[in-house]
């Protein structure tokens, strides 16, 4: 599904964040990307979204080299990205209205996209995300968790096959965070989505990521991956294995931040 092929990325007059970096993600997998501030998490996600381009090398998604945003890639941001002057229903419908304006051109909308009535599609996702009663309200009139549900609905109504999430639960209280984590797992499995989820939170990464990509201090030369097969199980949070995995991720983050490129212990470097 995703291939980073000798990807180098550097901001102007700065050392590389990624240096000839190779990484692959299989279709339908759920990955968490974890690291501290400034370690390249959001940069990686923006490159996947086609919003930043590598300095050299290439990123391939579904056999397509990414040189611009891809129609079937969905992006959910921490700040929700909702239009404050539009109702929740209008916000969820926005992407479909833009797509129908361009038509199925393969650049703004998938070739197989068939224009049709927007309202039934929007209604389906308002109900699925449990915010149909909020449809006529504005973002400022609903809670943070409801705003995030609206942002997810606006993304999923476009029927993506790749879902990118950038710290989407960071500003939420613990019960709302867990509720949306559970929902994310359900939706990823229902829609057979490939999920790449960026976070600095250990518990988020361990609950959601079947595989966890650890980003210490850049430059990143090779991926450092922790296998986490129990991710997504609702019972996992209360099991000792969950807390042990959190400790493993914390240890690898600490060590990798110090050594940059030489992982130890439970961490698996991928060539």
Quick synopsis:
This protein has 271 residues and is an alpha/beta fold.
> How large, in whole angstroms, is the Cα Rg?
19 Å
The CATH class of the largest domain is identified as: Alpha Beta
| Average pLDDT metric | 90
* Sheet with most strands: strand arrangement: 6-7-8-3-9-10-11
Q: Could you give the distance between the termini?
A: 18 Å
Structural class: alpha/beta
β-strand amount: 15-25%
CATH superfamily of the largest domain: P-loop containing nucleotide triphosphate hydrolases
Are there runs of 5+ residues with pLDDT below 50, and where? 261-267
The CATH topology of the largest domain comes to Rossmann fold
Number of domain modules: 2
Question: Main β-sheet, in a few words?
Answer: 7 strands, mixed
Instruction: Please state the overall shape, judged from the principal axes of the Cα atoms.
Output: globular
Order of helices and strands: EEEHEEEHHHEHEHEEHE
Q: What CATH architecture label of the largest domain applies?
A: 3-Layer(aba) Sandwich
Number of beta strands: 11
Number of helices, where a helix is a run of at least 4 consecutive DSSP H or I residues: 7
């Amino acid at each position: 599904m995703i291939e980073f092929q000798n990807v180098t990325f550097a901001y102007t007059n700065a050392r590389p964040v990624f240096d000839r970096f190779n990484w692959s993600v299989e279709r339908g997998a759920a990955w968490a990307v974890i690291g501290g501030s400034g370690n390249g998490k959001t940069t990686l996600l923006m490159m996947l979204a086609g919003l930043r381009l590598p300095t050299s090398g290439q990123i391939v998604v579904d056999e397509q080299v990414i040189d611009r945003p891809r129609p079937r890639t969905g992006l959910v941001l921490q700040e929700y990205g909702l239009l404050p002057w539009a109702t929740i229903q209008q916000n969820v419908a926005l992407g479909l209205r833009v797509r129908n304006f361009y038509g199925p051109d393969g650049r703004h909308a998938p070739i197989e996209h068939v224009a049709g009535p927007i309202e039934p599609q929007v209604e389906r996702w308002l109900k699925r995300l449990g915010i149909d009663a909020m449809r006529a309200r504005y973002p400022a009139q609903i809670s943070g968790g409801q705003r995030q549900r609206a942002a997810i609905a606006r993304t999923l109504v476009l029927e993506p096959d790749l879902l990118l999430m950038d710290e989407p639960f960071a500003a939420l209280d613990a019960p709302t965070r867990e509720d949306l984590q559970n929902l994310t797992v359900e939706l990823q499995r229902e829609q057979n989505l490939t999920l790449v989820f960026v976070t600095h939170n250990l518990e988020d990464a361990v609950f959601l990521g079947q595989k966890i990509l650890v980003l210490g201090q850049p430059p990143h030369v090779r991926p450092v991956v922790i296998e986490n097969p129990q991710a997504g199980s609702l019972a996992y949070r209360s099991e000792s294995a969950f807390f042990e995995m959190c400790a493993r991720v914390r240890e690898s983050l600490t060590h990798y931040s110090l050594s940059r490129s030489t992982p130890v212990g439970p961490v698996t470097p991928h060539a």
